[in-house]
Amino acid sequence: MIEVGIVGGSGYGAVELIRLLQHHPEVTIKYIFSHSKANEPLSHTFPHLNHLTYQFVSIEETTVDCDVVFFATPSNVSKHLAPRFLEQGIKVIDLSGDFRLKNRDLYQQFYGEEAAPQALLDEAHYSIAEWSSIKEANLIANPGCFPTATLLGLHPLVEEQLIDLKSIIVDAKTGVSGAGRSLAQHVHYAEMNENLSAYAIGKHKHKPEIEQYLSGIAGQHVGVTFTPHLIPMTRGILATIYVNLNKKMTVEALYNLYRDKYSNDNFVRIRDIGEFPKTKEVYGSNYCDIGVYVDESNNQAIIVSVIDNLVKGASGQAIQNLNKVFNLEQMTGLNQLPVYP
Amino acid sequence: MIEVGIVGGSGYGAVELIRLLQHHPEVTIKYIFSHSKANEPLSHTFPHLNHLTYQFVSIEETTVDCDVVFFATPSNVSKHLAPRFLEQGIKVIDLSGDFRLKNRDLYQQFYGEEAAPQALLDEAHYSIAEWSSIKEANLIANPGCFPTATLLGLHPLVEEQLIDLKSIIVDAKTGVSGAGRSLAQHVHYAEMNENLSAYAIGKHKHKPEIEQYLSGIAGQHVGVTFTPHLIPMTRGILATIYVNLNKKMTVEALYNLYRDKYSNDNFVRIRDIGEFPKTKEVYGSNYCDIGVYVDESNNQAIIVSVIDNLVKGASGQAIQNLNKVFNLEQMTGLNQLPVYP
Amino acid sequence: MIEVGIVGGSGYGAVELIRLLQHHPEVTIKYIFSHSKANEPLSHTFPHLNHLTYQFVSIEETTVDCDVVFFATPSNVSKHLAPRFLEQGIKVIDLSGDFRLKNRDLYQQFYGEEAAPQALLDEAHYSIAEWSSIKEANLIANPGCFPTATLLGLHPLVEEQLIDLKSIIVDAKTGVSGAGRSLAQHVHYAEMNENLSAYAIGKHKHKPEIEQYLSGIAGQHVGVTFTPHLIPMTRGILATIYVNLNKKMTVEALYNLYRDKYSNDNFVRIRDIGEFPKTKEVYGSNYCDIGVYVDESNNQAIIVSVIDNLVKGASGQAIQNLNKVFNLEQMTGLNQLPVYP
Amino acid sequence: MIEVGIVGGSGYGAVELIRLLQHHPEVTIKYIFSHSKANEPLSHTFPHLNHLTYQFVSIEETTVDCDVVFFATPSNVSKHLAPRFLEQGIKVIDLSGDFRLKNRDLYQQFYGEEAAPQALLDEAHYSIAEWSSIKEANLIANPGCFPTATLLGLHPLVEEQLIDLKSIIVDAKTGVSGAGRSLAQHVHYAEMNENLSAYAIGKHKHKPEIEQYLSGIAGQHVGVTFTPHLIPMTRGILATIYVNLNKKMTVEALYNLYRDKYSNDNFVRIRDIGEFPKTKEVYGSNYCDIGVYVDESNNQAIIVSVIDNLVKGASGQAIQNLNKVFNLEQMTGLNQLPVYP
User: Which positions, given as ranges, span the membrane (chains A, B, C, D) (predicted)?
Assistant: First the structure.
C-alpha cells in the first residue's frame, strides 16, 4: 500500500482527497495534518465523516514516515514545508499555487508573496495529467482548477498551431467551493445566492499559469484574456474559450482532432457535434467534458470545457498524478460516476 | 414628513427599511447610523444603492433631531442607546430582542446578557401590529421573525380557547437571511447550499417570546415546543403549527374563524380550504399568508403560516407599527406586491 | 457475478442504481429497461454517462435472463410486471409503492388505483434493511424515502414501548428530487427556487406506510401525523419527529438506547448528545444520521433523522437489501463517503 | 389615468408588469388577457396575488377599450393580434420578438416562423429606452433581455467608433426565468440546480437583434459572437463584452465616456473604476449597472453589464417606454430599489 499524508486537512481539497481515496485500492491515508486543529478528531471539523476515527496531527510534532504528501493548503505554505519531505525521499503533490509558476517575478506579482527558491521551482513538474510525463517526478505542481479546464480545452489547438495566438479569450465560470472554506462577505449564503459576478478581471493568479503552459507548447509567448465569474452553485467550472482559427476548418475536422488527441484518455470525453457539456454532468467525478463549435463565417472556434473544480480541478487530478508517478492505471480509485441529479 | 433615523445601518434590517421606506409618502430617512462604518458612504457597504448619497454617521458624534429611531441592531445594543432618544421625545422602534421579554431572568437565560432595566421593559409595547394598540407608545418592541409567523397563526385559537394549551408544537423553517449578515461557517455558501438542518432545539430566543405572548392571551402560562430549521434560501419563514383542539371542529369552522378574525387586516391573507401558502408567495412583501387544516379523526389542527422574515418579520412590520403610532393607514408605504418568481 | 436488470431506466432511481452499482464488486448490470426510450442509447437521456455504452431495452421484446430485477418505476407498474420475473425465479426488488401496503383498501385510497393481488402483497417483504430478515425473500418492497428516515428514527422508541403512541408527529422535509424527473409547474426551477411549502397534508402515500410498520412493532394500531415539506434543494430528507415519552427519561438514556440498538449497523450513525445532523452530511451516501433530544420538563422527545432520499431512501437501501438477500456484507458496494461540500 | 391591457397574462412578463404597475400613479390595469385561463381568477394561477380580484379575460370575447396593450407573450402571437388594437388607435408595446427584426428573412431563420408583414415591421419602433425617440410611436418593439444588457454596454463604444467592429464577443449569462414559465426538462429544478451550461451557440434569436441595432449605429453591418449561458438562479443577466479598441485608451477615458453618455439616464449606473456590478445589485429593479475595464497592453476593453431580466430586460423597460410615449418622467412607477439580499 502507498501511504499518504494530507496537509491542510481542514479544507475542501483535503476532504475531497479523503472521499476519493476511500475507493483507491492501493492507497492508505496515514496522516491528516492540520496546524490549527491538531489533536482534534477529524469529525469535529467534518461531521459527515463522524464514523472515521482520524485525528488531526501537527506536522511539527510528528515524525512523518510515508510515501507521498499532498498539500491541500492555501498558497504560501508548501514552499516552506515541502523541502523537508523531499529531503526524506517523500514525494510531494502540491495542490496549491506555490510551485506552478517557473518565473519568480510573476509569482511575486500575482500572489503578492516571495516565490519558492528557483531550484525547487525548476524541480517541480507541472502536470496536466493527460499531457505530462512524470514517472520520475518527486515534486508535482498540481494545476489550478481554471487552468485544468482551460488547458485541456486549448492544448490540441495550440499544439497543432491552428489558431491566432493573440486571439485567446477565456470566459470562465466557477462554483463557490473554488473560493475555499474561509469566510468572506461575498460568499455568505445570503449575499451569494441568486447572485452572479465577474471578479479579479486581469488579475487572477490563474492567468499567468495558463499563459506559461500555452507558451511552453507554442514555443513563444502566449497571452490570454481571462475573466473568471462566480456562480451561485457549490461545484463546477465551465470555461467558454474563444479563438480565431488560422485557416478555414469545419466543425467536423475540429471534433475529429479532439477525439483523436484524447482517444487514450478516459477522463476526457469529447461530446458529439452540436452538444455542449453541463457542469452537473461531471459533478463529483474526475471527468472533463468538452464540446466544440466552429463559426465558419469568420473562422472562429468556441470550446466549452467543464470539470468539477474539486475533483479534476484539484483532488481528483492529484490522485491521477499519484497514479502516474506510481505507475498505476490512471483510473485507479477514480472511477466514480457523476452524481446526478 | 416624519423624519427617521436607522441604527445598525450595515445590516439586513436597515437595508430593508431603506428599500421599503422608498415608497412611504410620509417618511423621510434623515440618518443612517453605523458605528463601524461612520463617515463612509452607504454605497461602499451596499453597492446596490450606489445612486444614493447617504453617508453613515456615528451616533456618538451627532446631535440627533428626528421623530423616530429604528434599531436594526443585534441584541444588547438598543437597551443601552434607546434611553437617550426617549428622553429627547424621540420614539424608538426596536427590531432587536432587547425589549421583547418582560422577565429579566428569561432574557438573561436566553440572551446570555443582562436585561434592560425593568422600568424600560415595562414601558415597551410588544406589537404584533394586527393585534396591538400602540397609539400612545414611545417605545415599540418589534416582534421577532419566528414569533410573528407563529403568533399570527396561533392568536385566534388561543384567544377563543379552542386548544389544549399543552399541545402546541411549532416546527419553524427559515431562510438564511434571518441569521443576519455576520460571517459564520454554517452560513458560508458552500456549506449552506443543498443543506438543511434543525438548530437551537429547546434553546432559541424566540421560544420565551412566543410563550410570553400566548400566556398573555390565555391568562395562564403557556409553554410551546419550538424547533427552528435553516433552509437553503435567502428569505422566507414557514411555521407549521400543530395543536390539539379542545373539541370537535370542522375545517370550515376553523377557516371561518380565521377569516373573521383577520377580516380587517389587509396583510393577513387566509388561504382557501385545502390550499397552503408557500414562502415565495409573500417574498419581498408585508403579507402573512395562512392555511388551516383539521384532522377530524383526532381533533388535531395544523396551521401553516408564511412571511418574508425581513419584511413582515422585521422591517415591514416595524413600518406598520410606525404607521399605527402616527395614526396613518396601516398599508402606507407597504403596498409592495410579492416579487414573483 | 449477480446479474441485474433495472426497470424504469430513465428516472432518478435507475440512474442512482447505476452510479452506486459501479462500485459493487459482485453485481453487474445486464439490462436497463425503458419502454419509452427502447433502443436509444442511455447517454441520450443521461449525457453524464456518455462514456457508457448501455442501450435501453424494452421488457416486452427481451427474454430476460438475470438474477434480480429492480423496479425504479412510478407506482402502478411493478404490480403488473413483477409476476413474470418471479415466475422465472428472478428476484424482484421494488422501489415503488406497489408492494408496501398489505391492506388493499389503503392502497386504493392513497394511490388511487387498484392494489396488487393479495397473494403477492402477502409474499412481499417490506424491508427497512437494518430491521428486516429477508434471506429467503423473492419479492422485496423497498421502503419509501420518508418512511426510511422516519422509521429508523422511531423504531427503537416504539419497540421499547417508551412513548405515547397517539402522540407521534412527523414534520418531514425533502429535496426536490423526491418528486422524480417528471415535469410539473411547482418543480420548475423559477417556481421552486427560493421557495418552501408544505404539501399533501394528511394525504401523503407515506403516511399509511409509516403507520403499518409502527403498528407491526407495537402490536396495535398506531396513527401518525405526517406533514411533508418541499425544500429548495435537490437531495436530502430531514424528519423532525415529536413524541411524548411514557415516563421520565434523560437524554443520556435515550442516546444510549439508540447507540445500543444500532451498534451493529454501519449505516446508522447516532450523533453525540447536543449535535443534530444536517442533510449534507449524508449527501450521496447510504448513511442515516440521527440526533436525539429530550425536554425533561414535559417528557417530550425530539428525534432528528436525515438521509439522502435517492440513496438510503431509495437505490442505496435497495442495494443493501440485495446484499442481505444474497448473503453479502451489507456495506458491499455502498461504502461511498458523503460528497462534501 | 392611462388604461392598459396585458396579453399573455399567465406568464412571467405579465406578472412582473402587474407588480411594477402597482406603484405607477398614472396607470391602471383594465384587462389581463389569457386565452387558456379565460374566466378564471388571476389568483388561481398566481396565488401570491390572492388578494387581487382580477379575472383573466379572453381577447376574442371582449370589446377592448383602453389606451395601451402590452404583449407579454411568446413569439408568434403579437404579429397576429397587434393590428386589431392599432386599428382602434390603441398603442401596442410588444415584449415578444415579433416586431424586433426589420428583416423578414432573419426572423424566419431565427424564429422558425413567418415574420409579420413588412409594413408593420416598418412601423414598429425598437426602443432601448435610453437611446430611442418614440414620442409619436404607436407600436413599440420592446428589446430582448440579452440585447438590453448588451446594447446599453456597447452603444457608447460603437457610436464613438472606438472599436474594431469585427472583434465583438458577448459572453452572456442569464437566470432561469428568462426561459419563461413553460415546462421543460432542462429547467426542472433537480436538473437545473447546481448546474451551468452554454446553449444555442451561434443560433440564439438575440444575436441578429443585437447585430441589427449595432449596424444601425455604425452605418455598416456589424456581426457579433454571442454565447448565452444558463445560470442556476431565478433572475438576472450579466453580459461580459470583449472588444478590441481602435487605439490606445485608458480606463479613465473609457469610464468618463460612459459617465458622460449616461449622465441623464437615471437607470444606468456606471460603477467606479475597478468595481464590477453583480446581478443581485439590480434584483427586482429597473437599473442597468455597468463596469468598464481596459487592458492597455493589448488595447482590449471589457464591459460588464447587469440587469434584472424581468425588469429592465422586459416589463420594467416596457413601462419606461410607456412613460416615454406618454411624456411622463421616465422613472414614474419604476423607482423600486433592488431587493437585497
Answer: none
